[in-house]
Structure formats: C-alpha cells, structure tokens
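ARCHIVE CARD
Drawer: 12
Card no.: 0347
Subject: one protein chain, sequence and derived structure
Cross-reference: see card 0346
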Amino acid sequence: MKEYRTKTHGHRIEFKVYDPDPHDKAGAEKGYTVIRIDALVAGMKAGYIKVGYIPSERWPLCYPSVWHYQERVQGWCLGIRGKDPSAPGDWGKIWMGVHRYAGVTPQSTNVSPLSMTEKHIPDMETIQQDLAALEERHPWYRESMENFKLSLVDRPYVDFIRVFKGPDPHFNLGNEGPLNFRGEGISMALYEYAARWLAEHKDMSLRASGLQSEEAKARWDQMAESAVYPIHEVTLPTKRTYRVLDYTKCPEGCHAAP
C-alpha cells in the first residue's frame, strides 16, 4: 500500500472511505451516489473529497423510460416520482402528462392534450403505441437521456474537495490547535487516493469537476505536468472535454489503495 505523508513534518495521512450501497435508493431520486473519503492526520480530520456518479445498478430503477428521465432531470411534472413504473395507472399519467408537455395530440385520439382527463386514458397497448410515436416525433428526448447516461453512469467525478485550516471541531472536539493542513499535499493525496481506490474497488477512473476553483485547476495542472500521474482527457457526448486520473490501466502494483 502506498504511504502518504504531509510535507512539513512527514505525518502519515490516513484515509477513511464511506461508500453507500448502490442498491439503496434512499435519498437517491435521480440515482446519484456520493462516495466520501476523509483524510486524517494524527487522528484529526484534515480534509475530504466527495466523488459522485450514478451506479449502473440504479439506472433501470430510476430511469425505466425516457419519460421518467424527462420528469427527474428535465423538470416535467408527471406525478410519477417514487412510484412503481410498472403500474398501469402510472403509465396513464405518463400518457397524459407527456402529451401535455409536448403540446401534441396523441395519435390514438382527437382530444386535445389540454382537455384530456382520466376517462380518456386508453389501454396499455395503445398507451405504448402513442408514446412510441411521440418519441419518434421528438428523438432529442432520448438523445438527451443517452448523453446524460453516458456522462454519469459509472463515471465518477469530483463533486467537492476541501482541506481544513485546522482540526474540524465537529469531528474532533478533543483536539486542540491551531494546525493548518493547507499546503501539506493533502489535496493531491486525496485526488490520488480516490482515483486509486476507484480503480481497485470499482474499476473506474476519477474525472475532474466541470466547475473547478482556480486552486483545484492548479492542482490538476500540476498533476498533468508530472509524469507520475496517469492523466488523460476524455470527451463526453456533451462535447465537453475533461481530464481523468485513471489508475485502471496502470502496470501491476499501481493499485495501492486498500
């Protein structure tokens, strides 16, 4: 296992990982999970990194159709949040709701979507035919969902990183300071450890945040300029290019996280 130490006094930096169960949907309406890794120095919490992504196990539970994506991500109010997508009643709400948002009359009826009530809901076969026709008419609904999926499913990114200026009073009430953990190489250690841990335990790489502070950007620039870190660029379906710290393809012995 690789050992990480602070720059000034060579104190060992240890890590504690909080990895939620990907099958647990509690609090995950949109499917996201967040892995948190704390950095500890001499028993004190020195900082942490949060890594977010959508586990592939959650995708079919949260997005069983393009219409569930439209509600959960695009803001359509179809009245199906948290409900069983296989329930016929829910598909009736979807049928009415999506035609109202799209402003399109269903192909199976001449009733305006603004005038439709529950009495106009057809049988399940007709519902699926109407929805398929609507999706064919507006292909960008599915294109948007696929881009979202390819960008976030099993693609961890840096959600947040912080290094404390001193002991965190919320977690270390008995510790006295002041200690300044800034400038001790802790943020670099967190990035590297997180990427190694993802490679070892998930076979995934770590993507830089799309909204970086100047300080975070400087750290990634520093890693990119060094031959030590396996950084490369990826272009997502959104056409945006990101830097990725990737230990999944390292030589044997590279995966140092426990």
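Annotation on reverse: Residues 76-149 form one domain. The first helix runs from residue 59 to 62.
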